[in-house]
Design goal:
By secondary structure, this protein is α/β, with parallel strands linked by helices. The chain is built from 7 helices and 10 strands.
């Protein structure tokens, strides 16, 4: 059964005097517990798609539903609240706050949601430990490796207990061995939490490990028959 659905999604941008159509009447259905990879050339619209699925950007027409909620119909305050509670984002660049520790970065979404400080700290500590960062809790981002920083970003994305995980080139800035480790952790967390996950990636090993692989071309998603470097 579908949990995350996009129906007749359209998105375009003005570029000078021209209008660039990025997504055209796009449909997507992701089941609960399913991990879907989206591949495609740079600039084809993978990031745009994830931003629309997660309510970070507004679509021109169509709908995006998470469970029974059509988030494309939500007013901005309600959308922000829903997004913070139900959708986790991981980006290629971690966007950690450099002046805060790994623990403080991971618990930030809970503090913003006004979760009690003790509970926020306990939940952030637990997920960081689960991701192998139990001995790095008080380290600031500048004291962490690239892979460790990205694991903090994963913890931050999942600490609120979202039902949907959206990851945009999560390993694009990592070396091959570190990327493989992060792949494994993402898959484990996805399975444990029965997430609906969409991973935009150029990494074909990560794509091949997903339940389905879709290719974004010409504003549409098509089933990828094979993966080629």
């Amino acid at each position: 059964m579908s949990f995350l659905t996009a129906t007749h999604l359209n998105k375009s941008y003005h570029v000078g005097t021209e209008r660039l159509h990025v997504l055209r009447d796009l449909d997507l259905s992701v089941g609960r517990g399913e991990m879907v990879a989206v591949v495609g050339a740079s600039g084809v619209g993978k990031s745009t798609l994830l931003h629309l699925l997660g309510g970070l950007d507004r679509l021109d027409s169509g709908s995006v539903c998470v469970g029974e909620h059509d988030i494309s119909m939500l007013a901005e305050p309600a959308l922000v609240a829903f997004r913070n509670a139900h959708i986790g984002f991981v980006f290629q660049f971690h966007h950690l706050l450099p002046e805060f520790s790994a623990l403080e970065n991971a618990e930030m979404p809970l503090r913003i949601a006004r979760v009690a400080p003790a509970e926020a700290r306990a939940r952030a500590t637990a997920i960081l430990q689960r991701l192998g960062l139990g001995d790095r809790l008080m380290h600031r981002p500048g004291m962490l490796s690239g892979g460790e920083q990205q694991r903090v970003a994963v913890a931050r994305a999942l600490v609120t207990g979202p039902t949907v995980l959206l990851a945009d080139e999560p390993t694009g800035d990592l070396d091959e061995q570190t990327a493989d480790t992060l792949h494994g952790l993402l898959r484990e967390m996805h399975r444990e939490r029965q997430l609906s996950s969409v991973i935009a990636t150029h990494n074909l090993r990560l794509a091949a490990s997903c339940d389905r692989v879709l290719r974004l071309e010409g504003g549409h998603l098509i089933e990828a028959q094979r993966l080629e470097e």
